[in-house]
Specification:
The protein has two domains: about 160 residues, no CATH class; about 260 residues, Alkaline Phosphatase, subunit A, CATH 3.40.720.10. By secondary structure, it is α/β, with parallel strands linked by helices. About 45% of the residues lie in helices and about 10% in strands. The relative contact order is 0.14. A seven-stranded mixed sheet has the order 2-9-8-1-7-3-4, with helices on both faces. A two-stranded antiparallel sheet has the order 5-6. The protein starts with a helix and ends in a 9-residue tail after the last strand.
Length: about 450
């Protein structure tokens, strides 16, 4: 009887320890597979103060709790789907875009060259490693069952979510900035009265500069003003400047300035007579657009004509006409060569002209490169080059573009033209300190109003 009693006493305790270890192992593996791994590729940017991702931690927790009891062949696709959504939503937040817009250009990624950017390379490596480790770890199971484990899992998820919010709260307003319903409309073309200047005698030119935001920092503002406020312009142009609200990404900025309302290019499915090119074409202007990238990126070759552009000049055309090639994540013709092409086209055209130019080279991230003019960035200041290298490269591009444009339009043989220069959106830096150097809500504009009065008809 004593032996039986000993067995009875021992039996309740022997299986308890292994069961407890199994529960802990399942919980830890769940945290690794559904919380740590999905967010690992974004960790470097999160530590730099990137886009807020607190809602992503909540999503990972919810998906993980649902998937933890499913078979492996179901968990793996769920993990891949979760990672795909996290990447797409991250990019959408970073560049103030709708997720559906990201999906619409996914097939055109071959037009880009992300391998030139260390940021993209590191992100891609982390994504591959994450998926590989997830396949290995999910095979070990993460089906914890005890209420206490569920409570711990929930607490960890909310802790990570709250921590991310604390890191990113200062820049929340700079991400996912899309126009709310009923937002009062404003634009540089409206504020400057550009349409009223279109008298059919003097050319009209609009330049939308990629990622040209309004600096907050006093030193950066002084540098920015120096880029565009050239004293030699005063003899030919009356120079004025201001700022305007922005929402969304580059195509939203184009839509704002060309169609005088908030929206985006996917709304354009038929010719729109309300847009600036169509209005000016009706007044007898020859309308031409210039952009140094591929025509099918964001379907510009489809909707530009619907806005009223009669002629379009894209990167391949520019390169064939002698423009230099500028390597970058978005490779194409060099912006500094575009003003010369515009001058040549205006010289050969008859009647009033409307010219629209969307720049390319300042699209972030900007690589350090001799052809781009970003290798010698310290010429703008050693402190800027050391502390804000991407800001420094951005200013280098703006400076080179402005110098080329101003040199051309200030030539005596450049035909009479009113020129409006405006940013599309703030620079979408991943580095929080760099992003905080710019206004979250406004972009600058500069108007070069031709002083010569009524210009002659051009031959």
């Amino acid at each position: 009887m004593s032996n039986a009693l000993a067995i009875d006493i021992a039996q309740p305790f022997e299986p308890a320890a292994p069961a407890k270890r199994s529960e802990i192992a399942a919980l830890l593996n769940w945290l690794a597979c559904w919380i740590m791994l999905p967010n690992l590729p974004f960790l470097p940017i999160t530590l730099m103060g990137g886009p807020p991702r607190f809602q992503d931690f909540l999503l990972c927790g919810c998906v993980g709790l649902i998937a933890r009891r499913l078979p492996l062949w179901t968990q793996l696709p769920a993990f891949v789907a979760l990672m795909t959504y996290l990447v797409i939503s991250f990019i959408a937040r970073m560049f103030n875009m709708h997720i559906k817009m990201i999906m619409s250009v996914a097939g055109l990624v071959l037009d880009m060259n992300p391998a030139t950017s260390i940021e993209y390379v590191v992100g891609a490596v982390l994504l591959v490693l994450t998926c590989g480790v997830a396949i290995w770890r999910l095979r070990h199971g993460c089906d914890f069952r005890q209420p206490g484990s569920l409570l711990i899992a929930t607490a960890v998820v909310f802790t990570f979510s709250a921590g991310d919010y604390a890191i990113s709260k200062d820049t929340i307003g700079a991400y996912s900035r899309l126009a709310p319903a009923g937002a009062p409309f404003t634009s540089a073309t409206k504020q400057s009265g550009l349409l009223a200047l279109a008298d059919g005698k003097i050319n009209i030119m609009v330049v939308v500069v990629e990622a040209m935001g309004q600096p907050n920092n006093v030193e950066l503002k002084a540098r920015f003003d120096k880029i565009w406020q050239h004293p030699e312009l005063s003899g030919k142009y009356e120079v004025s400047h201001g700022d305007t609200d922005f929402y969304g990404s580059t195509t939203s900025g184009e839509f704002r300035e060309l169609c005088q309302r908030w929206g985006n290019y996917d709304e354009i499915t038929a010719p729109d007579p309300r847009c600036l090119p169509a209005i000016l074409a009706k007044r007898g202007y020859r309308t031409t657009s210039y952009h140094a990238f591929q025509p099918d990126f964001f379907e510009r070759d489809r909707w530009y004509p619907l806005l009223g552009f009669q002629h379009m000049v894209f990167g391949e055309d520019m390169l064939e006409r002698g423009a230099s090639f500028c390597p970058n994540v978005f490779p194409g013709a060099c912006d500094r060569d575009v003003p010369g092409l515009i001058r040549s086209d205006l010289a050969k055209s008859e009647g009033p002209q409307f010219v629209y130019w969307l720049t390319l080279n300042s699209h972030l991230p900007i690589i350090e490169n001799k052809e781009l003019g970003t290798r010698d960035c310290h010429r703008l200041g050693q402190t800027m080059d050391t502390d804000y290298p991407m800001v420094c490269r951005l200013f280098s591009i703006w400076s080179d573009t402005a110098d080329a444009l101003i040199k051309v339009v200030n030539r005596p043989d450049f035909p009479p033209t009113h020129i409006l220069i405006v940013g599309d959106h703030m620079p979408p830096f991943t580095h929080q300190a760099s992003r905080l150097q710019f206004d979250f809500e406004h972009v600058p504009w500069v108007l070069l109003k031709y002083k010569g009065g009524q210009g002659p008809e051009q031959d």
